[in-house]
């Protein structure tokens, strides 16, 4: 099973560490790259602004995403150097960097493919996993830099651990899985002379162009914008919040904590899915229905507004492209006094279908279009509870993840809300949370986890769940 968690929980075997970083010549040439007319994606722009606003946080505020896996053969440095450079040049998200102009605009600069080059740096023996973790996080630049990516190999008897650390600016969950497949394929081709093909890739810059072209067609009167406004207005003009207290310090930063637990085995996961399908919902919609019932039990409120990430990749080469190809879509679910899971799932199924129609309508763009009279109050750097479902069984290359000790980790940044990932593996389904690291936050997330698993388990075992709610408002 693929390991998930915070980088602090990554435990690579100690050994001789060689890292691959952008060469000084590449960094210098990239700094002179011309301005490119395509802006950052909406999500990238807001992410960059948040990172720049919080540069004085005293820790890495931006998200660092790390993958690692083992190769049971001696390291071929020349082959890995060639593989890494081919990988970076293959995906054009790694050729962009962004500046803030005097007028406040975020501007893209694009580096020529031949400029991109990483080279090996020998760091000698690392005697502990903690040393490796500290090194990787210290060496990888943040999103203000073009070269916000590093790679490394930790050699041990009989093989080595290969890692890739990339700022979230240039990657997402699907991209991390594809990065693993690409790097394994490219290294094998260069080290052993194999000729395993790679799938064609699309352009992330072209994706950003498409997103911005769609945004330019939107006005406050557009039906998609009105849909978002109606949903937020029905939520009191505010974004949704986790249903239990988190004990956040509003004056300072609240660091992130992580929890992973098992939900149930594959047989139960299959039964849960069958109940969802029988009621017009897929698994994601079923999970939103579960969240709606939990929300009603914890708050006594009938209207639940859930958010779930949706891939914005188009069929074709984009499906093999590395980049940040996600948006949030809304899934409202109303829970009545006689609502059970099966009725909530039917509602969630319809809501999820309607939400998918907003996949290409960035909520960031909606906020640019709202008017004061809409009564929507959203602060810069906003965050919402998020529920993500990933059927890991369907990820590219998943059949080899167990054999190569595949791992996905993120740094311990700051958390204002609760992010939740439900991952379905071959044998088990797990839940992973990222949440504010406070005593109240830990207690609330554990309480929420118990309730969420209780509902899912009842659905899998009994075919339905009836919430215990005295009264709904």
Automatic annotation (TrEMBL):
Top-level lineage group: Bacteria
UniProt keyword terms in alphabetical order: Acyltransferase, Transferase
Listed GO biological process terms: lipid biosynthetic process
Gene3D superfamilies (UniProt xref): Chloramphenicol acetyltransferase-like domain, Nonribosomal peptide synthetase, condensation domain
UniProt-listed SUPFAM superfamilies: CoA-dependent acyltransferases
Enzyme Commission number(s) from the entry: 2.3.1.-
Annotated ranges, domain Condensation: 69-344
Family annotation (InterPro entries): CAT-like_dom_sf, Condensation_dom
GO-annotated molecular function: acyltransferase activity
Ubl conjugation in keyword set: no
Protein name: Trehalose-2-sulfate acyltransferase papA2
Organism expressing this protein natively: Gordonia insulae
Organism taxonomic ancestry: Bacteria, Bacillati, Actinomycetota, Actinomycetes, Mycobacteriales
Gene: papA2
